[in-house]
Specification:
The complex is a heterodimer of chains A (389) and B (256). Chain A is α/β, with parallel strands linked by helices and 389 residues long. In chain A, 29% of the residues lie in helices and 20% in strands. Chain A is built from 13 helices and 18 strands. In chain A, strand 12, helix 7 and strand 13 form a beta-alpha-beta unit. In chain A, helix 6 (196-207) runs parallel beside helix 7. Chain B has helices at residues 2-18, 26-57, 69-77, 87-91, 108-116, 118-124, 206-215, 219-237; strands at residues 96-104, 130-133, 138-144, 150-161, 165-169, 178-186, 193-201, 247-248, 251-252. The relative contact order of chain B is 0.18. Chain B is built from eight helices and nine strands. In chain B, the strands form two sheets. Chain B has a seven-stranded antiparallel sheet with strand order 1-7-6-5-4-3-2. A two-stranded antiparallel ribbon of chain B has the order 8-9. Classes of the chains: A alpha/beta (389), B alpha+beta (256). The structure holds zinc ion (2 copies). One zinc ion binds at residues 89-90, 92-93, 95-96, 104-106 of chain A.
Chain lengths: 389, 256
């Protein structure tokens, strides 16, 4: 089958690989009809995520039609149309039973490796390095889905692929980011990063009752989208000082909640950001915590910092003192996608939100390699790419 | 990364120079080599990914020594390290002890029953050896060497208390003499059963195998951790997570 594969920094190819097969009783195979490129795929594209191997199949935002089910699968049948969450979760362990699906104890076949690095292994993910499970991803014609009764959500209405596809990751991820921000009425919420996750965080913060949402980025189209679709006020950090502007907007109190929807590859400006980039290149530092530093500086005393952005290792110059002395609560984690599938599908079906507004590019899988480049360079107003295998 | 590599090469070349190529009973040594090599291969397989983590992620794992390809070469050629600093270990190879626990979200009785199920071992230990039930108390373990040589040994259960423990031993003349036990007790916080696996064995291949294991210092513990993780998954979900047939440009399946 055709698949997008990783061959190192800035080297994505479209190649023939073997077609996946059922190997465990709770597996299903889906024929992928639509699959997206995620902002976190760019961390792989930049070679920032450890334990990738040459030839790995990428992608963790797929949907499609069930073409085969294992003997243990009860809720899915051949022909069902499903969206597949990027977190692989067994449904039976203590974490899954407590709705902490992205922390599943059983789904990572390379759990010992993750344990060595992190102390414990989180859930396995599709197409996101061997430490995170080693599972082939969904930017391919077919995908093997383990624990098929736990992850995939059936789409029984006639909603289009691009309306439901983002249930696989970015819609729930933006939503959990807003939930983790502990929003009360009268609150001001600041969102760093107006990529797709940031856009959904803006929308969900509004849905959860924020008085005001402020979106921060440097790309004019992305800021415009946050204004037009999310009703956010915006700050272009290349034009204005973020701290000064946020203090102006909040009577010098700072935003009650701050959301870092950027993660490890933040651009930032100034000397410290440059130093981060150099250290990262020399492998002295894994993450560039530019946004974290700024968010901690801006956040209201006693406020909340929510981090959906992906980090991979260690970050230097992390302002632990300010974080502690300002009494800030930090909430983070990969998204417990399965927790949100039902409620967010309801939101889409009832017409409260149409997630397809983020799509700027829709193309055949074969165009994948060049669209990774377009997306990475933020050329052609690219915000979200959907690929059709 | 570059520095680390250089240091490793230097160390390996130093070791290669001090190799003296001693030999004992060739048949026994051949069998022991199979076991040693298999453990080495398993370990290196895991280590190659750890190595990638080190290379890409910085200094996470730098403190742990990595046995390079020359370790494999020595294993395959059967050359022993004759350097004097290892003389003490040659005369008295240390016993290796492994001890790991995991919490399984089922009752001690269910865990015990699963452990005693003849199918369980082959599924849980499949990454180390083929395990075949001879009868309810005896299992035959076989490891396959890279060139078609097999080595096998038997374990037999010497003590078992339903819901509490199972203890086993090998005959003393086994290729890989070992004894072990698994204990089941209530996990803290009423979260199921704490399963504790303890294994002691004489490293295979005498000094050579001992060194192979030392170079892969964490491997026995890692293998035990993997086995327990697989056991937990089997009991909690009815299956073991796997990358069998996992597609990539490299082909089907991933060995780690
Ligand atoms: Zn994603
Ligand atoms: Zn689970």
């Amino acid at each position: 089958m055709r698949a997008l594969t990783w061959h190192g920094k800035h080297d994505i190819r479209v190649e023939d690989v073997p077609r996946p097969e059922i190997v465990n009783p709770n597996d299903a195979i889906i024929e992928v009809t639509a699959t997206a490129i995620c902002g976190s795929d760019l961390h792989l594209y930049h070679g920032r995520v450890p334990s990738m191997r040459e030839g790995d199949v990428l992608g963790h935002e797929p949907m499609g039609e069930v073409v085969e089910v294992g003997s243990g699968v009860e809720t899915l049948d051949v022909g069902d149309r499903v969206v597949v969450p990027f977190t692989i979760s067994c449904g039976s362990c203590w974490f899954c039973q407590n709705d902490l699906y992205s922390l599943c104890d059983n789904s990572n076949p390379n759990a010992e490796l993750a344990r060595e690095v992190m102390g414990h292994s989180p859930a396995g993910l599709y197409g996101y390095s061997h430490m995170m499970g080693g599972y082939a991803g969904g930017q391919a014609e077919y995908l093997r889905v383990p624990y098929a009764d736990v992850g995939p959500v059936k789409i029984e209405s006639d909603l289009s692929d691009e309306q439901v596809l983002f249930l696989s990751d970015i819609f729930p991820t933006g939503h959990m980011a807003a939930e983790n921000a502990d929003i009360d009425e009268h609150d001001t919420v600041a969102v760093w990063g107006c990529g797709p996750v940031g856009q959904f965080a803006v929308q969900s913060a509004d849905m959860l009752g924020a008085d005001r949402v402020v979106a921060i980025d440097r790309v004019p189209e992305r800021l415009a989208m946050a204004r037009d679709h999310g009703g956010a006020e915006t700050i272009n950090y290349e034009e204005e000082d973020v701290y000064d502007r946020l203090m102006e907007l909040t009577g010098d109190r700072g935003p009650d909640s701050c959301i870092d929807a950027v993660g490890t590859d933040a651009h930032g400006t100034g000397v410290v950001a440059t130093s981060d980039r150099v250290k990262q290149r020399l492998n002295l530092e894994d993450d560039r915590p530019t946004v974290l530093r700024e968010a901690i500086r801006c956040c209201r005393k006693g406020g909340t910092l929510s981090v959906p952005g992906v980090y991979v290792g260690r970050a230097d110059n992390f302002p632990m003192g300010p974080l502690m002395n300002k009494g800030i609560t930090v909430k983070t984690g990969q998204t417990h996608v399965q927790r949100y599938l039902g409620p967010l599908l309801d939101q889409i079906e009832s017409g409260n939100i149409d997630p397809s507004f983020v799509v700027t590019h829709d193309a055949p899988l074969e165009d994948g390699p060049e669209l990774y480049e377009t997306f990475n360079d933020k050329e052609d107003d690219c915000i979200k790419v959907v690929l059709r295998p | 990364m570059a520095t680390q590599h250089a240091a490793r090469e230097q160390r390996d070349s130093h070791r290669a120079q001090s190799d003296s190529g001693t030999a004992t009973d060739p048949v026994m040594r051949g069998v022991q080599l199979v076991v040693g090599t298999v453990l080495l291969v398993r370990g290196l397989g895991q280590r190659s990914v750890s190595g990638t983590v080190t290379a890409l992620g910085g200094a996470w794992l730098v403190s742990r020594g990595v046995g390079g390809p020359s370790g494999m070469k020595r294993a395959l050629t059967g050359r022993n390290d004759g350097s004097s600093e290892r003389g003490a270990e040659r005369t008295a190879p240390p016993e290796t002890d492994v001890h790991r626990s995991i919490t399984v979200g089922q009752s001690a009785e269910d865990c015990y029953d699963a452990w005693r199920d003849p199918d369980t071992f082959s599924r849980v230990m499949g990454h180390v050896a083929d395990v075949e039930a001879v009868d309810s108390d005896r299992s035959r373990w076989t490891v396959h060497g890279p060139y078609g040589q097999d080595a096998s040994w038997e374990t037999h259960v010497v003590e078992s208390e339903p819901g509490e423990l199972v203890r086993w031993e090998t005959p003393t003349d086994a290729v890989l003499p070992n004894e072990g036990s698994v204990r089941f007790e209530a996990a803290p916080g009423d979260r199921g059963t704490l399963v504790t696996l303890s294994v002691s064995f004489d490293p295979p291949g005498g000094t050579l195998g001992d060194r192979a294991l030392q170079q892969l210092d964490i491997v026995p513990e890692k293998l035990a951790g993997q086995a327990l993780g697989r056991f937990k998954s089997l009991v909690e979900t009815g299956e073991v997570p796997t990358l069998e047939k996992n597609p990539s440009t490299r082909g089907e399946g991933d060995t780690v």
